[in-house]
């Protein structure tokens, strides 16, 4: 990946398009937003693949991320809490929990930072009627 100076930050061009990165939200994505999005996005993608492999159908998945930064270390991210809300019909809690454990073990973004950033997860299952 190549990065180039842009107005107020840096830019990279990826196969999906241009990505502007800046400490100023008006000029691009803030680095901490990209870090959290990487963790949540990776986790969701791997979780979905695990569910698909186990043939567990879901209707919806929402992940909310809460970030805690250190007030003493230049806003260093010290923890990310992911709240998963999984909706579907006849979902079995034990199967979904096991799938989440497998996803966590296979998410490259979580594995990359888990020794320096505390990652926690909460699972909420909403069973919909037929």
Automatic annotation (TrEMBL):
> Where in this chain does the entry annotate a coiled-coil region?
none
Pfam families this protein is in?
OsmC (PF02566)
* The organism's place on the tree of life at top rank: Bacteria
Check the record and name the InterPro entries matching this protein.
KH_dom-like_a/b, OsmC/Ohr_fam, OsmC/Ohrsf
Could you identify this protein by its name? Uncharacterized OsmC-related protein
Which species is listed as the source?
Gracilibacillus orientalis
